[in-house]
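Hey team,

Filing this mostly as a record. A colleague (T.K.) asked me to run one chain through the structure pipeline before their review meeting, and I want the input and output archived in the tracker in case anyone asks later how it was produced. No errors, nothing strange. Just documentation.

Input sequence:
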Amino acid sequence: MAEYDLVLRNGTVVDGTGAPPRQADVAVVDGVVAEVGDVDGRARREEDADGLMVFPGFVDIHTHYDGQATWDSQLAPSSWHGVTTVVAGNCGVGFAPVAVHNRERLIQLMEGVEDIPGAALHEGLSWEWESFGDYLDFLDGQARDIDFGAQLPHGALRLHVMGERGARQEPATADDIAQMAELATHAVIAGALGFSTSRTLNHKTSLGEDTPTLKAEADELIGIAKGVAAGGPAVLQVISDFFDLDGEFELIEAMAAESGLPLSTSIAQSNRQPDQWLELLDRCQAATERGILMRGQVGARAIGLLMGHQATLSPFMGSTLYNELALLPHDERMALMAGHEVKQKILGEISVDENSHVLGARTTGRFQFMFELGNPPNYEPSMDDSIAARASRAGQDAAEYVYDLLLANDGKGLLYLPAANYYGGNLDVVGQQIQHPAAVPGLSDGGAHVGTICDVSFPTTLMQWWARDRPHGQIPVEAIVHKQSRLTAETVGLFDRGLLAPGYKADINVLDFDGMKLHAPEIHFDLPAGGKRLLQRVDGYRHTFVNGVEIVADGESTGATPGALIRGAQGVR
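Output structure:
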């Protein structure tokens, strides 16, 4: 009789603790790691991992699969990149709680904030729920490849309790706050991992309206946070512009301090305040040292906008003719755009709408910060390779240069515009962010910005670029694995995963570290109603296991669905 279900033999084990890699076997029984070391027993399945790296499944704590998880059993592309657990409900947006009359508002909010096609949401969402608990119950009945956890979104909660007053950002009354706090308590009891809110002007509905939570006052935020805490172990997540650094940080620190809950906030380097990221992380660290656990979620590279003829954004979206042609089938549009007369008219009409509410639309003319992405993609390009610089060397106008460039490759090429984390023209700041003691990897936005951003490959970038390929400023692979597996799990209260050690979940990656290769994102039209989304493939992940069951083999889904809905914090601190 076999003693184990699975044994991975002779691999280079990076166990998630931060300890250096070592050669060892990993044995699994009943979805749990049983032994790490020299395993003598037999298994029903054995894999030779000699020359391969074996490490825990990645935990991605900042995704927006709130809709996709209701209709799709494969949470790709996250599952292609070694991710075995995702957390949704970030940034205060989601689909529960919801009354019938608020469904359209929540779609508009998600479509505007997260660039998920409204048509896809209209067709894909079944709306077989009202309360947050109902939503979790529905998700619990769906098969999926990886584990899924959800947070209670402030936007949905506020609209549910306050209706139009909430949408207009009116101050919440004491009764409103009490109702929201009570619903938050019930949500955590039902299995919510925590609560999230948005306080950024970048988040607008598809109609251009600010998010309902933008101006929520301290009594509302702290009152809800206390309600969350009353339901049991949970976490808080916040995104803010931090225009008033002192006042805003004092507010979110009070949410954590008065509720006793850990809090994480999104942090990236902005061009407007290029040094503020360090102040925020230092303040998070100082709060943690005072006993108020606060962490900053940081990216693995620049927050990069993608532009092209199939993407949501294009350098030519300020042209009336271009927008008319965009309604045509792609091949027909490209044939027309190849004509001289159409080209000249589009180039003559280009303008930048400084008042546009579409994410990134105000940056479409910034050719000095725009790059050809290429395949394999270059996420740390030299400023000498910008569209403006290349056009100047060619003696061409930048707009005309990029017009011709995007017509190549059947009009399917992409441009890359680093919108944050690239103030110095390199990723040095990102390396500092990743290694800061208060920082945890996040911000991949898996499932969101499906026509604008494809940062879902952040976990792979950490491994390929930061641990292997970057010419200078590399980070030890054991530090990367620790941050993206164990530390992320701890940040959202999941203490049963993120380590390769006896008793922990058998969520495991087997990686050809030297052969790892990230491919350029591609547009696919496979969302409900034919909606488009960016997908990105990677070579090198030989095996990915969830609960000891293989879900990805050599980059392809096996069709297995061992993933589960996570209800509340798991394991023991």
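Quick notes for T.K.: The first helix runs from residue 68 to 71. Residues 4-55+508-553 form a domain with the Urease, subunit C; domain 1 fold (CATH 2.30.40.10).
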